[in-house]
Amino acid sequence: MFLEISNLTKKYNNKTVVSNVSFGVEEGELLTILGPSGCGKTTILKALGGFVKSDDGKVILDGIDITDFPAEERPVSTVFQSYGLFPHMSVIDNVIYGLKFIGIKRKEAEKIGIEMLKKVHLQGEENKRPSQLSGGQQQRVAVARGLVTRPKLLLLDEPLSNLDAKLRLELRSEIKAIQREFNITTIFVTHDQEEAFSIADKIMLMNKGELIQFSRPRELYENPTTKFSLDFIGSVNYDEKNSRFSRLEDVYFDDKGEEMEVLDYSFKGQIIEYTLLTSDGTTIRTVSLNRKGEFAVGEKVNAIVNWSPLDKLDK
Ligand SMILES: Nc1ncnc2c1ncn2[C@@H]1O[C@H](COP(=O)(O)OP(=O)(O)O)[C@@H](O)[C@H]1O
Ligand SMILES: [Mg+2]
User: Fold this and answer.
1) Among residues 218, 177, 165, 212, which one has the least CA distance to residue 314?
2) Contact at 8 Å (CB) between 71 and 49?
3) For residue 43, how far is its CA from the centre of ligand 1 (angstroms)?
4) Nearest ligand (C-alpha, residue 8)
5) Atom 27 of ligand 1, residue of closest alpha carbon
6) Residue nearest to atom 4 of ligand 1 (CA)
7) Measured by CB atoms within 10 angstroms of the end CB, which terminus of the chain is less buried, N or C?
8) What CATH fold (topology level) applies to the domain 235-309?
């Protein structure tokens, strides 16, 4: 394993915020750490970057134990949500900042920096100050700065969360493309499941400082191993009485199905979401694609529900 974290634990004032977390990342892989606010995502990144000292655990990167290395001696770059650019420096100086510490001369550094700016679509912007750029452009500068030293590990802490929706999608696919091109081992932190699903090779789901599930995105969705995974990812119908659940897409309109009444209808553009009421008083939500025919509130419909047992899940 290229990056191996074992038994990482971090406490603040005797409160455990990261609890005995172990995982590995293959070379060139993009791992997403996903979980609600406060679950310990940033703390893990900071421990990997060398910005906080863990109370227990070991970090091996490319065969070297870096657990006790200071931040500047780790071959690791971190990009924060808030960009963290130097406001008094030009774009190019920001980008090449790390190169002087690894002994690269100014002229050569500039050449490398300009090349990197091209990769993030910022050619021609090198002499501006960060404040003259949009939020998305500033985050591109931060990504370029993180990549220019060719780190063995790139850490991205919610890098897109300050951007508006359209730009977020754009920059997300650019980051993924660059990550692939450079084959750079990356950990991308987010609290947004859709973002995690679209960018990750693997997802590590966390809650309250603990690792809940570590798997490929599809596996996490299709085979949640815990109640928390099931609840956090996607939408779900519960039938507690019979200890079972179904995803919204596991409910089909079908003439052979059980009769239900449409309680609520919500138009969402590509899809329409329905809430249905069964004869025994259970409500069930489902979705159907727009243009596939619609049902009105109060209408009687027939639907089949594919249930899965809840009791095979851990708490
Ligand atoms: N420097 C600190 N001092 C005390 N508590 C902290 C500190 N940094 C983080 N925490 C606490 O640790 C927990 C995890 O925080 P964090 O890693 O930032 O979560 P996330 O990034 O998932 O939102 C939170 O309860 C937070 O309040
Ligand atoms: Mg955080």
Assistant:
1) 212
2) yes
3) 6
4) 1
5) 38
6) 12
7) C
8) OB fold (Dihydrolipoamide Acetyltransferase, E2P) (2.40.50)
pLDDT of residue 49: 96
**Distance from Cα 78 to the centre of ligand 2, integer Å:** 13
- Confidence check: pLDDT of 307 > 90: yes
Residue 162 has pLDDT above 90, yes or no: no
Query: What is the pLDDT, as a whole number, of residue 230?
Result: 95
Query: In angstroms, what is the span from residue 169 Cα to ligand 1's centroid?
Result: 27
Residue of 8, 9, 12, 210 best suited for mutating to test ligand 1, as the one with most atoms within 8 Å of CB: 12
pLDDT tens digit sequence for 35-47: 999 999 999 999 9
Please choose, from the candidates 163, 144, 162, the residue with its C-alpha nearest in 3D space to the C-alpha of residue 154: 144
| CATH 2.40.50.140 residue window(s) in the chain | 235-309
Could you report the per-residue pLDDT of 83-132, keeping only the tens digit for each?
789 999 999 999 999 898 888 999 999 999 999 999 899 999 999 999 99
Tokens linked to 307: 């249930």
- Span 3-228: which CATH code? 3.40.50.300
The pTM assigned to this predicted structure is: 0.92
The structure tokens listed for 175 are 């980051």
Residue 188 in contact with residue 30, Cβ under 8 Å? yes
In which residue ranges of the chain is CATH 3.40.50.300 found?
3-228
Residues near ligand 1 (Cβ within 6 A):
12, 17, 35, 37-43
Distance 160 CA to ligand 1 centre (A): 20
CB 182 within 8 A of CB 15: no
Residue 293 has pLDDT above 80, yes or no: no
Is residue 240 predicted with pLDDT exceeding 90? Answer: no
Query: Phi/psi class of residue 50: alpha, beta or left (left: φ > 0; alpha: ψ in -120 to 50)?
Result: left
